[in-house]
Amino acid sequence: MSDQRDTENTPSKPAPAQSEYNAQGIQVLKGLEAVRKRPAMYIGDTALRGLHHLVYEVVDNSIDEAMAGYCDEISVLMSEGDTITVVDNGRGIPVDMHKTEGKPALEVVLTSLHAGGKFDSGSYKVSGGLHGVGVSCVNALSEWLRAEVHRDGKIYEMNFVRGGRVGEMEEIGTCPVGENGTTISFKPDHQIFPERVFSFDTLRARLRELAFLNRGVSISIRDERQGMEREDTFHYEGGIVEYVRWLNEGRTMVCPEPIYINGEKDGIQVEIAMDYNDTYTEAIFTFANNINTTEGGTHLSGFRAGLTRTLNAFANGSGMLKKDMKGLTGDDVREGLCAIISVKIPEPQFEGQTKTKLGNTEVKGQVESLVNSNLAELLQEHPKEAKAIINKCIQAAHGREAARRARDLTRRKSALDSAALPGKLSDCSSRIPEECEIYLVEGDSAGGSAKQGRERRFQAILPLKGKILNVEKARLDKILGNDEIRTIITALGTGIGAGIFDITKLRYHKVIIMTDADVDGSHIRTLILTLFFRYFREIIEQGHMYIAEPPLYRVKKGKKEVYAFSDEDKDRLVEEMGSRGIYVQRYKGLGEMNPDQLWETTMDPDSRTMTRVTIQEAAEADHIFTILMGDDVEPRRRFIEENAKQMNIEDLDI
């Protein structure tokens, strides 16, 4: 999970100027002009997500070489001045003259949209991109880009500024014959990207994922920026089997080794690794040509259908299902399942430009058939593991029935109440979800201040008593028995659980966590985030979840009063105002603030700062939640030791 600052103010739209609409108003953008004019169309946005996407586009070219069998080493270097260098030992981008374009192929690839080897099945049988706009977009959106190609015993160099060629391609030296490869160095354009600070952790997560998906390929990342020096290398001979092991770190596994299924038909390669664990939620991640298909698609549908059919057939055939059980549902067979599904397709069809959902209809039947035949055989050959899996599914079925009874009981209680909404909820008067927001507030004291300070028309307040249940360690029926979680579910209005949750019934389009700036507050915030990540993930994915950022200090001198949101802000204010006669108050709890102070600093849409919670790497987030919130202490201790050096002692609440 990650966060981004949310800007609250939206300026009023000025009246359009009257102008004549004729042929002169039709603008034709040539070459890479369109990319610079509308960068978000090509890389998603120009914020931090789009910035890191530039690196992914260059790395994906190297991965295409790896999938073709010509590359096994890729390195990413982060240097001072916001520069990135990506090196691979692939074949090297061709440098000979292009027959129709009349310029070196290297220049064509770097300056022309919809140009590249992925359109020629002879160059790449499988590739990650469809449109051939990747590295040329990086060139267009960079202050400068330098390409160096090692090919056929010679070294070639070409330079560009904001997508335009600077000079001709030059032969600058020699290299051993056979030691080919491509080096791309670039600096993002400050005219396009307001913030150009690359995150080591963000890049590392994607590179680790690519290493898992491409067995045998070594991918390294090194940060050389002063004070930020770090490096890591990823190499997994076991591929996605090791991916499942990594995801299940800190969990108790049902099978000693992940189940691995693979096959190929009509040029479509399918790889599946899966195992069950002692958790109560599913973690299935799907990929098509290394692209994370977060919305699933035909490969996921085929896997689910094959899994449900195969496990039901085995459970019935082995006599493990009792007569009163009608069978195992899809939810039953996926509880506690961790799986990676990776398909590689010569002609992938994605729904939409974002490539988050696979649409190839032929893939569904192929994956389903592969799961049916291979999994059935594996269950027969490993009766001990098969029995453990079926027992896990049967327990899930019992838990599903218990959860249904708990939901029914909750509904009956609500119907008997004078009002369906929780009594502790101070609701807003508006019934338009798009303008409504709910604050999940720690404690009655802070809740009281928030209720008095809020704007009643669109702000609702739900005070929470103590710490909610850690849902990482509980099945849904136990979760529904927790009073605080039940009030959250009722207030949101979406319901909870597979087949029940409905995002369209969300009553507030901003769900804001507001806790104290101390250890307990951080713990409560993490517990709430765990609940939403596991059971209300779509609320996060659609951008409805926020974290309030109250000030840490009140700095007062005479009649002047200013708030500081960090130690750096506080020190700067003290220096500016002069230390004599100054009063500094450290807020330990929201309840210490008067209602007007809480409104002014934390709740007023015109002046507040909030952090929007997003999920950029779902697998990484799943892994972190398991480590931090699971039962196993050892991975958590190791995580703390590895990340302790990133923490400033001043940030600790001792």
What does this 3D model show about the protein?
This protein is α+β, with helices and mostly antiparallel strands. The protein folds into four domains: 33-234, Heat Shock Protein 90; 240-400, Ribosomal Protein S5, domain 2, CATH 3.30.230; 420-550 and 606-615, Rossmann fold (3-Layer(aba) Sandwich), CATH 3.40.50.670; 553-586. The protein is 36% helix and 21% strand. It contains 20 helices and 22 strands. The strands form four sheets. The protein has an eight-stranded mixed sheet with strand order 6-5-4-7-3-2-8-9. Strands 1-22-18-17-15-16 form a six-stranded mixed sheet, with helices on both faces. A hairpin with a 2-residue loop joins strand 12 and strand 13. It is globular and about 75 Å long. The two termini are 26 Å apart. 40% of the residues are buried. Residues 7-16, 21-29, 415-419 and 649-654 have low confidence and may be disordered.
The biggest beta sheet is recorded as: 8 strands, mixed
What's the CATH first level of the largest domain? Alpha Beta
Mean pLDDT: 86
| Beginning-to-end CA distance, first to last residue | 26 Å
Number of strands: 22
Oligomeric state of shown chains:
single chain
Quote the beta fraction: 15-25%
User: Mind telling me the C-alpha Rg?
Assistant: 28 Å
Individual helix count:
20
The neighbouring-strand order within the major sheet is 6-5-4-7-3-2-8-9
Task: Count up the domains.
Answer: 4
The CATH superfamily of the largest domain is identified as: Histidine kinase-like ATPase, C-terminal domain
